[in-house]
Amino acid sequence: MIHNGLEIRNLSVSLGGVRILDDISFSVAPGEIVALLGPSGCGKSTLLKAVTGLVSHQTGSIMFGSKDLAVVPVHKRQIGLMFQSHALFPHRNVEENLAFGLEMQGTTKTIIRCRIAELLELVGLCGFEKRKVETLSGGEAQRVALARSLAPHPKLLLLDEPYNSLDRSMRRHLTDEVRRILKSLKISAVHVTHDSDEASRMADRMLLMEKGQIVKQGTFQEIINNPKHAIVADLIGLETIWKPTLKMAEGSYSATTPWGERVIHEPITSAISLLLRPEKIRITPVGFPVVIENRALQAGEWVLTCRGKDNFTISVKADDEYEIGSRIYLTADPSDVEILLGSIPY
Amino acid sequence: MSYADRNWNKNHVENKSSESSIFTLVSIGVVGIFFSIFYFFPLGKLLRYGLSISTLLDVYGSAGIWKIIWFTFWQAALSTLLSLLLGTFIANTVTRLRFRGRSFLRVLSTIPFVLPTVVVSSSFISVNKMFRLDGTSFSLEASALGIIIAHAFFNTAIVVRTVGGWWSQLKDEPEHAARTLGSGPIKTFMYVTLPRLKPALLASASLTFLFSFTSFGVILLLGGLRKSTIETEIWRYATQRTDIKTAAALGIAQLLIVISMLLVNGNLRARHATNELGAIFRPHTEPLNARSHMYRIASGVFLIVSFFGLPLILLFERSIKTTAGYSLVYYKQIFTGNQSDRFKVFATKEAIWNSITWALIAMFVATVLGYFAANLMTNSSKRLSKTSDTLLLLPLGTSGVLIGFGILIALNTTPVDFRSKWWIVPLAQAMIGVGFVARIVATAIRGIDPQLKEAAKILGASKNQVWRTIDLPIVSRSLLAGAAFSFAIAIGEFGATAFLTRPQRPTIPTTIFNLLGRPGAETFGMAMALSVILAVATGLSIAILDRTGSVISRDT
Questions:
Q1: Containing H/E element for A187?
Q2: In this predicted model, what pLDDT tens digit does every residue of B449-464 receive, in sequence order?
Q3: Is the Cβ pair B176, A15 closer than 8 Å?
Q4: Which of B173, B198, B291 sits opposite A85 (nearest CB)?
Q5: Looking at the complex, does the CB of residue A16 fall below 8 Å from at least one CB of chain B?
Q6: A165 touches chain B (CB under 8 A)
Q7: Is there a contact between A300 and A278 (Cβ–Cβ < 8 Å)?
Q8: Domains B1-51+328-556 and B66-324 alike in fold
């Protein structure tokens, strides 16, 4: 199959004798934005470094535009990279930072000047040419970093948790903006993050990584509808996940829930977890008695953390404000309890 | 701690109570008196000797002097350039790359800085003999080449520590950014890394230039009669031709040049918070497995081992090589004394004894004074801390020869004739070491995070408890490091000692110099053996420094 985007097959990387990436395969279509979601230390950044060539891989292949990148040195790959810390050159001003990539290509001065003006307009920083890097705010620095990585017309942009140091509203704003810019320029991108909200805003598709492996990929909707793995559900922020106590009855397993038994028809080969989403639970006059331990506003709605018999802890949505410590009764249907593979560490 | 934090710490002024102002007064008194007697008075007197129009015209009217001044400049410039090249390359190897044995190589490349000049010169002489370079154009003896390489051998350590310390705190993300923006490895180094290293490069270059400019032992031993600098000329005029006026006039020029270089260095340090000596590496590097790294590690290791290791190994080899094969006979001669009259003049056992006791005295004096001086340098009054900082830089930059010479001509007129007393030697050695101790301790005091103290206070510690639990452990480690450093300097000190010690009271360095001045395999072998002993003594003290150093200058 001829593929014009990024195509990674069976990629493995070891650093200092430790295997960081293990048999990674995925592809990014031209113009597609893919989010790479995973806990810290799962190998996300190393994966980006391998694609840029800053880290070399042992096995597998990285193809870009049907060309094997293994023999192409970093500076000839035409892949842009944006860092967590904007990584602007401190000894150059904004203009000189933007010009760097073009200077390396040997572009003439007049063209460079036009391109800088164009880029600054694109990121909404007109008139910033002579500003020193240290006078920029966090958001401005990230915009300059974006403009700098776009300057030499990369075909693929990699973003390594670029908004970590920014506050929430700036983060959302920049995410929307960067997506708009990348889409308008038809640049493919891989966006690394550990924030599922950011991932869903930014990307067309998601890859979920855990311990150097890709555990799941698909659109956000597909993954939310069927996370399959407990770790995936946890990464995208689904609640409540817990480890069940299993019983064997009439040839099949069943898990005990406060609302009766959940029969498991699938064969069980390793650890499983259960998931019961907050919207599937109702607060009713009678039912499973719990005490409200804490509450949090999530996207304008109250989510209550409740504790019942046997320290069973569960989250539930509420349309009203409840006092912490008050007693309520919950009702749910055991068939709404989903079964996930594996377990989460806490 | 980031740079921003650290600068904030520096500007963070603490409230001092009246007890500490008494302590400040005592510090001013002690430091002031010592510096007046052993630095300002002698140098003032020296200036007066040289400051007459006729003398100055006489001295600077001759073409020979200008040739010497020119040589002093260009050998220092080339030495600096070579040190920068080697030092930057080595700093890259020992801070940016991860491999086994890295910390050993770091120590190996630091040791030369504290090695006595006579030892380094001796080891270069032994390299020269080993490879039979004498008479060729690569000869390391009586040649500018030998001098420049020997200076690089010393001063590369300054560059490694300064540039490496700075480099280890730089993240490599801008470099990675440059690479992904289409710049190759060499361009990335030129356009991104070098500009980022500039403050550290400038700081170490000015220090290296200063040390090469005022170098004494290396020029005297490797330059022979043909190559001399201002420094060795001062010594020659003062001791061999007893023309004090000419020597003093040369001393003035030397001092002026040194002071102007110190001002440049001071300006650099004020502008960029580089820390020259004690810097320790905690690299931020991530392991990258690019194949080119293997070549870089291999070439770096080869350079360090051959450049720093080889002369030292050869020095040892020469010290055990006799006409009848390898033996420890020279060491035996050093410790038992030799029956033959020819060697009686070299009181080697006494020299060792003198060197050790004097170095211990110098260490004690320098450490106590350095502690007081460090307190002045970190005083909350900005004027006091700035003044003492500059004044303490002076003896650091003044050569041992000038200090020794100044004391020689000045201190016989004081009520006590200091000059004829044996303890003038350790005091002069302490004068040279005190600047280093003060800097090391001051750096440690400045490095104490004020938030640590605030946290201790909030947790209920009284003022004394805060001092005992927070300040003392950090300061005492730096004092130990300073003591080790001043011991190493004192035991290998040659410039001032050569002026002040009497033939009947030799030290190890002066004895090595005298031994090398006599022809014969046996005197040469004994000189080499004594050099090994001296190298071991300084190596041991620097090992202590490095142990404590990793703690004291962690965040400096």
A1: none
A2: 778 878 888 887 887 8
A3: no
A4: B173
A5: yes
A6: no
A7: no
A8: yes
